Structure formats: structure tokens, C-alpha cells
Hints:
disordered N terminus, five-stranded mixed beta sheet, Beta-Lactamase
Amino acid sequence: MVKKRTGYQADSVATPNDFRRRFTFALVIYAIIILALWFAYYQINQTAINRRDMENTLITADNLKEQVRDEFERMRTIAVTIAGSGYVQDFLKERDVHAFYAKADTIAEIIQRAAFPASSADSVITVNTSGDFYRFSGALSNSACEKLFETFQDAGSVYTVVELDGSMYFCHNSPVFDSSGPVPLRVGNVILLTGLNKARRLLDSGNAMNYMDAAIMLDDTVILSGNHSIERMTADELMESYYAVTSIEISGTPLTIVAAIPKEAVYPDDGIFLSMALMLLCLLISMILILYRYLSGYMMRPMADIMARVRGISSGMSDRLPKTGKSDFDALVYDINDMLDRTERYSAELLSEREKLFDAELSKQKMRMGLLTSQMDAHFVVNTLTGIKNLSDIGENGKAGQMAEGLAIMLRYRHTGKTLVNVFEELAALEKYISIMNIRYEGRFICENDVEEALAECLMPGFVLQPIVENAMLHGLRQETQNARLLIRGRIHEDKIYFDVNDNGAGIPPDKLKRIRDNLDNIEIGDFPEPGLRGVALENIQRRIRLQLGGQYGIQIDSVQGSGTTVAVTLPLIPDR
């Protein structure tokens, strides 16, 4: 017998591949058009313009730098030549006023021949070490010359820009040394100055681009430019005002050459670029409208209607979707209605099975915790009863009674029914256990606590520290007859609690330590504890912590043979409310 499927079956059902082909074709065409138009706009215009303008600014700035550097090099050569003349050295050493001025004519002729045929210097000044100056050219005031003396009195060969008598000058200073003695002795300076405005010819000759502004900056401020409006602008203001800016420092000077393209010079005035952008924009908008109309009429509206009806399906799944009239979407409607029918049948069965699975898993977890707890209890009780028997055998009935009383208190604490206990409850129980062990081993163990007071407001799983301390006493400190020390430290860091149990006992051999670490690292939360009572303490603590609190918590062990062992416990910070 053939079972009839429920739901709405389309008269002409298209395959999912038909729907995907139509949708993919429209989407690919749309994406290709958008990307092609954007790519053409960006690549043809922006990239080319940016590269061209940046290259032009770099070339212009480099040319200007070479022009200015050549001028400075000429000034340096002239100054060094003058400073190296024996006549100039003898002139600057002269202290007799009449002889000083008598020699000035000879020096003026030397300077005239050395400086002015090859340089555009406005002023040449010599100053001796006493501050006596002589102007061989230019019309600087006495106060300006005195300022030059103060500026370059102890300076070496240097380029700079100075302001004298209200005007700015490019300046080169060259010290003059008397080389006639065994040791060169400084006798004065030769200073060449060129007016800042005179240097505008360098900007004009080095800037071949009429639409570009060239400038010279000092201390991040424009001091000279062919465009007077940008003088005294800062570098940040230039970056805001111009489309492209390139700056190159002139080595050995405090000056920077700048070439900048104004924003209005980037795009042509004839409007070609603007027209092209508008045409591309109109074409883009037209294509978007056409594609939107197609996608909206054939795909978006039916799909939106289906989505709205799917969201409106009641929780009882009694509603079903109507046909849309589009073959692609009617196939989807049919599949959704069929899915709702099957889901309605399966939901009750799934809920029942899930409840059974949850109950079984919960029982399994409780069983694991119970086995771990009982195994730890049995391990502790067996060891303590053995100690009581040994004391009884040697006639120490009083100590055996004290151990029995301590055992009763420990078991009462252990079986209070609490999953988590206060940290200081755990420490109090631990002190009781330590007293039991000291009875058994005649006070051999010296135990110290270093636990933060803040832990009094925190919770932790019970009986975590006791098995660790027991391991330390029985395995690490048992052979120590003197100075068998145990230190228990507890602290809070961020959102975790950290305990360290440290002993100064025999330690653990490296191969055994590696096996213990591997066992602790490889313990799975879902594992059942190994049967038996030997070698279970640390592994069972690891299982309990991970099962109860999560795999990111647990214990780690570190040991140095002959020096002692440290067991570190990491727990979450759980407030005791």
C-alpha cells in the first residue's frame, strides 16, 4: 500500500538547482557590474592621479633640495676658502685698530674675488674672538653683527637661518684658525648671509610645475614660498590645506624642502572627470533599480511572505503554508509543510528520549562522584585504623583513643551532606587530621599555614587538601626524623583560588614524577575510578575537581628529588553567601 504524503504539492515542481541557477545568475551579474564600475572608477582615476601627483611632488622637492644644497655648498666653499687665507687669519689676529682697518682693504679684495663671482651672498662679515667685526658687504646694523658674534662665538661650521634687523637670512658660519703655531688657535669667524627673499629664485628655478607650490620650512613652519599666503603655515596646516605634500630634509641644516599640490589642481577644470563620474553613477543606479525590480518581484516578495508565515507558525505546529504561485517557492512550501508534519510526529518521541537520557547521565555522574568519595573515605579510614591498631599493639591505648576520637570527628565532618564547604572548615578538618598523624608518628611533623583571610568568605569541595597532606606525610616526610616540615599556602588571584602544599621531604624521582603528571593530565571527567586503595589519592582529587567544577581546574605536581615536593591546587572563586 502506498502512503500518501500530507501537505501541499506543487503542480509543477522545479528542482532546487533551477532556483539556485536563477538566483546565482542574477547575483553574479549584479556583483560583476558593481565591481567593474567601482574598479574602473577607482583604478582609472584615483590610482593614476595619486601616483602622478605624489611622483611630481617628490621630483619637485628633490630638485629644490639639490638647488638649495648646491647654493649652501657654494657658500660653505667660499667661507672655508676665506677662512683658510693667511691674510684673513692675520687680519683677525690684529688688535691695533689702525692696523686692523689698514689690512681691511686687502681682505676686501680677497673676499670680492672669492665670494661674489660664485655666490649670491648679500653680506660677508668677519668677527674676531674679541667681538670686533668688519662688514665687507651688506648694510647690517651694529646690533645685528653683535648678535651674529653671540650666536657663532663657539660654533663650528654650520648652516642656519637667522633674523637680523627685521629680515630673515640664510647664514653659513665658518670658524677661522691660526695655523702658524704648533696648535691651531681660533681667531674668529667668517659669516656669509643671503637674504631670504633673494632665495625665492631657487624655488622658482626648482619648481617646473606651475600648479604646485614650493616652500622652505624651518622648525615645522614655512618661512619662504612662491605662494606668500602659505608663509608661516605649520606642517599640519599644510597637510589639511593641500591634496598632496612631500617634504625632504636638507642634511646638515635645520631646513626642510616642501612641494605641495593644491586640492583644486587635482581635478581638471574642463569637467571631464566629473562628467564621467556622473555617467557611471547614473548607470549604476539604473542597473540597481532593474535588478532590484527583478529580485523583488520574483524572489524577495515570495521569500519574505514565506519567512513571515514560518515565523507565525504556532508552537503546536497546526498551521501550514499556502502556495505562492511561483514554482521555485512552491517546492519550498511543500518541503516545509512536509517537515512540519514529520517534526510534529517526532517531537513527542524526542522529548521523551531526551528526558530519559538526561536522567541516565545524571545518575551516572552521581555514581562517579559517589565512587570517588567512598574510595577517598575508605583510603583515609583504612590508614587511620591501621595507625590505631599499631598504637594498641604497643600499649599506647591513650593515643589510640585520641586517634579514634579524631577519626570520628573527621568522618562526621566528611558526611555532613555538603557538596561545597567553607575554606576554613576544610582547614579546620585538616588540622584535626594533622593532629591524628602527629599522634601516630610521635609529633614528627611541623605544619604551617599561610592562608589569606579573604578565603574565609569562599567555598571549595571538601576533602581536597587532606589527601594531598596525607601523601606528603606518608611518602615525602615519613623518613624524615627531624625538621619534617609542611607548608600550606592559600591565596586569591583574579577569579581563582590557589593552594600550594609544600614539603621538604625526599622528593620524587624524575621518571616517577613524569608518570604521575601524565596520569593527572590524561584523566577524563567521564572515567570511573580505578578499583583498589593504593595510588588513588591525587588521581581521585583530579577526577572530583574536574567532574564537579570543570576541566580548567585541578592539581599539578612539581618535585625535586632530595629537596621536596609541591602540589598546586587551582579552584574557582565561589563566594560563601
